[in-house]
Amino acid sequence: MLCAREVVPRIAAFWHFSYPTILYVFRDCGYLTITSRSRDGEFAARMVRSLGFFTFRGSPGKGGASALKNMIAAFKQSGGGGFVADGSQGPAQVAQRGLLVLAMYSGAPIMPVSIAANRCWRLPTWDKTVVPMPFSTVAVSYGPLITVPRNASSVELENYRIKLEQTMNEITSMAQKEAASFA
Question: Is 3 within a domain?
């Protein structure tokens, strides 16, 4: 397992559907993450803290800018963090810009990561959350690091957003193929 003490700070980017599994894979590393200020976000915040993450609370329109500012400062003393690339409300598997802004101002590269399980439940949620069944095999797939320059323009940020989204969807397909081979 790749923990904060062993690497240069990175921003692990993953799709919302993989949130529970990613949290388990990267547990007890002291990584940073963000959770919504909603009631569901409170449940998520408690869960991620119990798995050894340090959480900031915020979402678009509800303290998101403040949470992002505090995370940027915290990145300088941490091993990195894990963040949902498609946000807390989607649309599913469409990268949002907040993650790129964090990368731009923190100087940390984005490390795309995705998962798939050979046997899983898909919850009836907007993102079709994956919950691996007991004794299933989970494939984890990584993409190349994406570094966003500090002086990136709005147009460049959009190009990085598209690159991240394409990379995330490619590695998701790779993880699904790998997981299917275990069936």
Answer: no
84, β-bridge pairs: 14
Going by their DSSP bridges, the two strands 10-14 and 80-84 should be labelled as parallel
In a domain, 73, yes or no: yes
pLDDT tens digits for range 121-169: 999 999 999 999 999 999 999 999 999 999 999 999 999 999 999 999 9
Q: Rounded CA gap, 122 and 116, in Å?
A: 11
- Which tokens in the block code for residue 14? 């993953």
Which tokens sit at 54? 């340090």
Q: What is the dihedral of CA 70, 113, 163, 147, to 10 degrees?
A: 50
Q: What's the chain's Rg over C-alpha atoms? A: 15
Domains held by the chain: number: 1
Of the candidates 23, 16, 20, 32, which has an alpha carbon nearest to the alpha carbon of residue 108? 32
Buried b / exposed e across 40-61, counting CB within 10 Å, b at 16+?
ebeebbeebeebebebbbbbee
Question: What CA–CA distance (Å, rounded) separates 130 from 121?
Answer: 6
Q: Does residue 4 sit within a domain?
A: no
